[in-house]
Specification:
The structure holds two protein chains of two kinds. Chain A contains ten helices and 22 strands. By secondary structure, chain A is α+β, with helices and mostly antiparallel strands. In chain A, strands 11-12-13-10-4-14 form a six-stranded mixed β-sheet. In chain B, 20% of the residues lie in helices and 33% in strands. Chain B has a six-stranded antiparallel β-sheet. Chain B has a three-stranded antiparallel β-sheet with strand order 4-6-7, with no helix packed on it. The model of chain B has no long low-confidence stretch (mean pLDDT 93). The chains are: A alpha+beta, B alpha+beta.
Chain lengths: 372, 130
């Protein structure tokens, strides 16, 4: 028996197939994973993401603390509700976790971190909080729903009190607002527009049912994974981990090197890595039938005529792979040496398959962004 | 509730076997198997003329979430593979016992047929596994 979100009984009563995910019993799907995926790309779907860990950081020096703790710079956050994606690094540059930080007030920032990393994250946050006098509180009293898709916002807003609806519709991308008992953010993990809603755990089941009545389709972890991978978004533990620095994980854009005067944990290591030509994370599109999966070896493709089918020693490997329902072919993220491409061979069950190297994302806002 | 036709035989690895004429059989995966795997997106059937031994992995089905081997329930020679599945893997979900058949085997004369489960035995096996 694993940990359960406040919606567990609701999911079971709605016929969800439940699996263990990092110690949590969560819905894999409610029927067809492909239909759930398409519902999010074309209309609106919702995910119970209450397993994710919400942490409030409070104290007069909260911003200063986060500027030291995170690789991205919370100085970029200028108005309440604004969000920033960042990695939290070890001194050697490995990624402890990726997270979203919300600026609530000058003395209150909110983090959303991964479920599977909560204990080490909380320990790390607390270890560094004391010198800054920052209080670290896990908000286990809150549930979290992600409502995603081109019609997600329009279908969600009627659940708010009339006075709040205009505010909800005015929330800018990658920011949020406190509305009624909810904190509503225009963020997500699907590549579609939508809201992530943090709300009192006791309201989660009734809100889920109300969203269901709005015609929003329940979706599980299966669709969440295919959606995020199409959107070119990393999964912690697959595409990033403590053994790799952000530049090897496609996350250079999240490291704020400027201003040079800002000291943050991991800075020296990442700056060293920046001067070397190391591995990078790329997108792959399989040009043959088959499915790309995590850990498949990736090697250089030879001359097409001569030895395309003869694999050379592995250059790297697939970090996340799946069948893309939108592209109707297999896609992946893979860690390979910089400059690899334009084609590679991926070893699928001992046989080389040709894949094209592309720049993620594969799909955003319902549109295919790569050539297929 | 799983659909388990009475006129077929089954394996504990969730393949079904239909007896055709002249010592030939047709093989696929059960309703339970396709349901457990979820939406299937890739199928690889064995090459015609390949010799297979009962229990040997000879085909692959992949759902969105994972790949699974399909084992030949019998020993013999592959005489046909369902190539339609390459284009339409969803047939395995929609119609696992008919349009979703995977391959046909001409049995070895010496092949023992005793290891397969009847429909009732397979139903009981699924109950016990739950």
């Amino acid at each position: 028996m694993g940990l359960k979100t406040p919606l567990y009984d609701t999911h079971v009563s709605q016929g969800a197939k439940i699996i263990d995910f990092g110690g949590w019993d969560l819905p894999l799907s409610f029927g067809s994973q492909l239909e759930e995926h398409h519902a999010v790309r074309r209309d609106a779907g919702m995910f119970d993401v209450s397993h994710m860990c919400i942490i409030d950081l409070k104290g007069a020096r909260a911003r200063e603390y986060l500027r030291y703790l995170l690789a991205n710079d919370v100085a970029k956050l200028t108005f309440p509700g604004q969000a920033l994606y960042s990695c939290m690094l070890l001194p050697a540059g490995g990624v402890i976790d990726d997270l979203i930080v919300y600026f609530m007030t000058e003395s209150w920032f909110r983090l959303v971190v991964n479920a599977g990393t909560r204990h080490k994250d909380l320990a790390w946050l607390r270890e560094h909080a004391a010198p800054f006098g920052v209080g670290v509180t896990e908000r286990t009293d809150l549930a979290m729903l992600a409502v995603q898709g081109p019609h997600a916002i329009a279908k969600t807003v009627p659940l708010l009190s009339p006075a709040r609806r205009a505010t909800a519709l005015a929330i800018a991308r990658f920011s949020g607002a406190a509305l009624d008992s909810w904190f509503v953010a225009r963020t997500g993990y699907t590549g579609e527009d939508g809201f992530e809603i943090m709300l009192p755990a006791q309201d989660a089941a009734s809100t889920w049912q109300a969203l269901l009545r709005q015609g929003i389709k329940p979706a599980g972890l299966g669709a969440r994974d295919t959606l995020r991978l199409e959107a070119g978004m990393n999964l912690y533990g697959n595409d990033m981990d403590q053994e790799h620095h952000p530049l090897e994980s496609g996350l250079a854009w999240t490291v704020a090197f400027d201003p040079e005067t800002r000291e943050f944990i991991g800075r020296a290591a990442v700056e060293r890595a920046r001067r070397e030509s190391g591995d990078v994370l790329v997108g792959l599109v399989l040009e043959e039938r088959g499915v790309l999966r995590k850990s498949q070896p990736v090697s250089a493709a030879g001359e097409p005529s001569a030895d395309a089918q003869r694999a050379s020693p592995a250059l790297g490997e697939v970090t996340s792979g799946t069948f893309s329902p939108t592209l109707n072919r297999a896609i992946a993220l893979a860690r390979v040496p910089r400059g690899t491409g334009p084609r590679v061979l991926v070893d699928i069950r001992g046989k080389p398959h040709t894949a094209r190297v592309v720049k993620p994302p594969f799909v955003r806002n319902g549109k295919i962004l790569i050539q297929i | 509730m799983s659909d388990i036709p009475d006129d077929l035989h089954y394996t504990r690895s969730h393949e079904w076997v239909r007896e055709l004429q002249n010592g030939q059989v047709e093989v696929g995966i059960t309703h339970h198997a396709q349901e457990a795997l979820g939406d299937l997106v890739f199928v690889e059937v064995p090459q015609v003329a390949r010799r297979v031994t009962a229990g040997e992995a000879c085909a692959v089905v992949e759902s969105v979430k994972a790949a699974s081997d399909v084992y030949s329930p019998v020993s013999g020679r592959i005489i046909a593979g369902n190539n339609e599945l390459a284009q339409r893997p969803e047939l395995l979900n929609q119609d696992p016992y008919a349009a979703g058949w995977m391959f046909r085997v001409e049995l070895d004369a010496s092949a023992p047929g005793g290891a397969l489960l009847t429909a009732a035995e397979y139903a009981q096996y699924l109950d016990e596994a739950d």
